[in-house]
Amino acid sequence: MTLKDSDKTAEENEHIRKETRHVLKGFSRKRRNLIPILQKVQGRLGYLPREAMTGIAEHLDISTIDIYGVVTFYNQFRLNPPGRHSIRVCLGTACHMKGGYITLDAWKRRLEINAGETTADREFDLDTVACVGCCTMAPVTVVDDKPEGKVEPTRVDGILLAFEQEREAREKEQIESE
Amino acid sequence: MKANRNTAVADAFKGIKERAESRWQELWSNKPVIMVGTATCGRAAGALDVLEAFKEEVKKRKLDCPVIEVGCMGHCYAEPMVIISKPGYPPICYGYVNPVIAERLVKEFVLGDNPCPEFVIAALEANDLLPSFNDFPRAQYEQKIILKNCGHIDPTDIDHSIASGGYSALAKALQTTPEDVIDEVKQSGLKGRGGAGFPTGQKWHVCRHERGRPKYIICNADEGDPGAFMDRSILESDPHSVIEGMIIAGYAIGTRYGYIYVRAEYPLAVERVKIALNQAKKLKLLGNHILGSDVSFDIRLFQGSGAFVCGEETALIASLEGNPGMPHHRPPYPATRGLDGKPTVINNVKTLACVRHIINNGAEWFAGIGTANSTGTAVFALAGKIVNTGLVEVPMGTTLRQIIFDVGSGIPGGKRFKAVQIGGPSGGCLPESALDLPVEFDSLKDAGAMMGSGGMVVIDEDDCMVEMARYFLEFTQRESCGKCTFCRLGTKQMLEILSDFTQGQGKIEDIDSLNRLAGEIKNGSLCNLGKTAPNPVLTTLRYFRDEYEEHILMGRCPALMCMHLIAYYILPDKCERSCDACVGTCTVEAISPNKKRIKVIDQEKCVKCGTCVDACPPQYNAVVRLSPPSEVPDK
Asked: B130 and B37, same structural domain?
C-alpha cells in the first residue's frame, strides 16, 4: 500500500522537504554519504517518500533512480509510512525451528495485513527481520524496537490486548481533554 | 617481541592505567556491587525491568551499593542474569531473575546474610559455600579468551576495560615496529574468524606492502547469519577489545582510517560502540597522536542497512561507498584494491578481538591453543534444541559432541539428537555420525559444512530436514543480490522444488534436478553467497535422503513439522470431559466439545499453530499431530 504523491497534501510535502533539508545540512555532497543520509531521513520521517529521494538526489548530484535502486536493495528502507507501532517478526534459524513462521501467521491473521504492510488505521505495521541475534529467546518478535522473547500465538494476542487497552486509555484522555 | 622503542608511550599509558585501576578498586572496596547483564538477549528476557527494580530498591533503602550494567556472560538460557559481589562472599551469579526476585535479593542478601541459594546459578570463584562455574562439566572444555571480560565489566566504562587488561597490548605494540606486530600475528597462526579462515597476518602483510594511499581497515560486524550472535555479544559486552584490535591493525598496516560496519539490526551494539569510541578518544587512545606517539588512528561507525550479502567483503565495500551491496570478482582482493580502490584490510570482530591477547601473551602462547592448523579458540553461538543456549568458547579441535553434549548439556526434554547446523545458510547439517569431528577449518569442510562465523543450531527429532533445507534456501534466495544469473534464478528453482516437497507435491526425479542445480549454482556464482547456497540442501540430501523420500513418496513428514503434511487431532479416549483448556486457547476457535463433551478440532478452521498441544494438560496429552492429514479418522 504505497501512497501516491497525489494523495499527499502540499503541507505534508513541505514537511517532508523541510525534514530532508534538515538532514542534508549535516552531510557533504559525497556519494559515500548516501546510506547514512537515507538512514537519518527515515529516522525522522519513518519512511522514504519520493519527495525526500528527489531532495537527496539533488544534494548528491546523482539520479533519483540510483537512490531508488539503493532504497529497494536494502531491507531496512521502506517506501510507505509506518504504523504507530512496529511489529517485526524474527525469522532466524532458531526462531524458525521454534515456530517463528507460526507466529508470523498469527500476526498476519490478527492484524489482517501481510508482512511489509501497514494496517488501514495506521496503528501497526508488520515486517519480518532476518535475525536479531536473540536466538536463545526464540521465537522473537521485536515490538517497537524492544525484542520480546517466546512470542507464540497466545502471546501475540496478549501483546495486542495491551496495545488495545493503551489505545482506549489514550482515546478516553483525548475525549476528556476536549 | 622487541620492546621499549618509545618510553613516552609507556609513561602515558601508565598514568591512564593507574587511574583506571584505582577507580576499579574503589568500586570493589568494602561495599556490595550489583551487576545486571543487559545485552540484547538479556533485554529480551526482561533485564531492563530487573535493572530498574534493583535501582529502585537500592535507592529506597538508601544503600551504598552501585548497580551497574554489564554485557552477556554467555549463559543466555538463564537470562536475565545478575552478579552480586558482596565483601565476605564470592561473587555470586543469579539466573532467571525478575523484579520480585531482585527485591528479595536486595532485602535478604545485600542487606542481610542470606545469599538466597534457590536463585543461584553458580559462584564465580571456588568457595566453601556454593558450587562455582568451575565445578560445571563444561568448565573442563571451555577456555575463555575473547569472551573473558564479557559480562564482567561495564562496556560503557572504559576504565573497567583498561583495569581488566585493555589497551596494554596497544601500548606494547606502539613500542615495537609494525613489522614486529605483523610477524607476531603471523606466528600466532591466527586465521580470520569470519568463516573463510584466511591467515590474518598474511592479509596485513600484503596490505602493508601495497603502494596505494590511503589504506583502510574495516571491522566486519555485519553478522548476517541467522542463528549467530557472537559478534553482537562481543560488541555489546566488550567493545574496547575490538577497538584496540583495530588500532593495532591500523598501526601494523600503516593507516589512520578505520571503519566499523555494524548491522542496523543491532541498535544496542551501535550505541555501545559509539560510547566506547568517544571514551577512547578522550583518553587519547584513539585519534591524533595516540598516547603521545606519532601514530594516529580514527574509527568511524557505519551502519549497514539489512542485506545479508554485505557480509561478503566486496559487497560490504560497495555498500560503504553508497551503492547497492553487490559483490565483484576477486582478485583483486580488497587487500590490494578495496574501498575507493585503495588497499583495505577487512577483519571479523572476533579476529580483531584476538589481537590484543596475541600481543599481550605472545604468538607462542596463542599457537599453543587449539590444533596445528587452526590455532586459538572458536566461539560458537549455541541455539535451537539445546539445553544451555548461549555463547561458548572452546579451543579449536574440540569435537562437536563435546560442545553439544558436554558444554551445551544436550537436547532438552529427552528428545533424540538429529543434526547440527553449522555455518548458517552457507553451512550444512551434520548428523550424529559426524559428531566426533574436531571443530577446525578443514575438517568441517570435508564433511560438507563449514566453520562459518560460528552459529550452531541444534536440531532434534521434531525438526524436519527438508523444511530446514527449504528454510535456508528461502533465505539465500531472498538475500541473493541478483547479479549472477545462477544464484538469482537457480536458487529460486531449488526453492520451488523444495517447497513442493514440503507440500507433498514433489516427484522423485526432482531430487536429481536439485543435485544438478546445486552444482551449477556453485560453479556459476561470483561470491560465496551463491557458491555455498546449495550446501544445506546437499548435506541434508547426503545424510537424510530417507526423509526426502518419505515426503515425496508417501506425502508424510516424519518429524511432523511441515504444515501442509500434518493435521492436529484430539484422541477421544484421552480427552478429559471436564477440561476445556484447548477450547479457550485455540486462537481461531476451531475446537469445540461434541455431545459427549469430547473436544473435536474443526480441520477446516484449524491453522495448525499448535497452541492446543501446549494447552492440553500433560496428564491427558490428548492432542497429537498426524501425518499425512488423511490419518485423521472421519468420525
From this structure: yes
- Are both B541 and B579 inside the same structural domain? no
C-beta separation of B44 from B236 below 8 A: no
Looking at the structure of chain B, the number of domains it has is 5
A38 has a chain B CB within 8 A of its CB: yes
Do both B535 and B578 map to the same domain? no
CB proximity A74 to B under 8 Å: yes
Does residue A110 share a domain with residue A153?
Answer: yes
* Residue range of the domain that includes B621: 566-631
Judge if A69 and A10 occupy the same domain.
yes
Phi-psi region of B458 (alpha: psi -120 to 50; beta: other; left: phi over 0): beta
With an 8 Å Cβ cutoff, are B44 and A131 in contact?
A: no
pLDDT 10s digits, B266-302: 999 999 999 999 999 999 999 999 999 999 999 999 9
User: Which residues in chain A have Cβ-Cβ distances shorter than 8 Å to B383?
Assistant: 93-94, 135-136, 138
Pair A100, A134 in one domain: yes
- The minimal CB distance from A92 to the residues B40, B227, B385 is found for B227
Q: Give backbone dihedrals phi and psi of B36, rounded to 5 degrees, phi first.
A: -110, 130
Distance from CA of A113 to the nearest CA of B (A): 16
Q: How confident is the model at residue A4 (pLDDT cuts 50, 70, 90)?
A: low
Distance (Å, whole) CA B326 – CA B483 = 7
Q: How far is B479 from chain A (nearest CA, A)?
A: 9
Q: Cα distance from A10 to chain B (closest Cα, Å)?
A: 30
| Residues B322 and B220 grouped into a single domain | yes
Query: Residue B148 domain-assigned?
Result: no
Give pLDDT, residue A1. 42
Same domain, B625 and B516: no
Q: What's the rounded mean pLDDT across residues B604-608?
A: 94
Residues of B in contact with A92 (CB under 8 A): 226-227
pLDDT tens for residues A82-115?
A: 999 999 999 988 899 889 999 999 999 999 999 9
| Pair A93, A163 in one domain | yes
Residue B444's pLDDT band (cuts 50, 70, 90): confident
Same domain, B451 and B475: no
Report the residue of A135, A141, A148 to disrupt the B interface, i.e. the one with the largest count of B CBs within 10 Å: A135
Give yes or no for A99 touching B (CB within 8 A): yes
Q: What is the pLDDT of residues B340-398, one digit of tens each?
A: 999 999 999 999 999 999 999 999 999 999 998 899 999 999 988 999 999 999 999 99
Mean pLDDT of A53-77: 94
- Does residue A79 lie within any of the structural domains? no
Give pLDDT, residue A6. 57
Residues B247 and B338 in one domain: yes
Total structural domains in chain A? 2
User: Would you say B66 and B84 are in contact if contact means Cβ atoms under 8 Å apart?
Assistant: no
What interhelical angle do B491-502 and B465-479 show, nearest 10?
150
Any chain B CB within 8 A of the CB of A116?
A: no
Pairwise CB contact (< 8 Å): B323 & A74? no
Residues B226 and B184: beta-carbon distance below 8 Å: no
Single out the residue in A73, A99, A128 at which a domain terminates. Answer: A73
Residue numbers of the domain that contains A119? 85-177
- The answer to whether B412 touches B386, Cβ cutoff 8 Å, is yes
The DSSP element (H or E) to which A78 belongs, if any, is none
Dihedral in degrees, nearest 10, Cα atoms B148, B154, B156, B160: -80
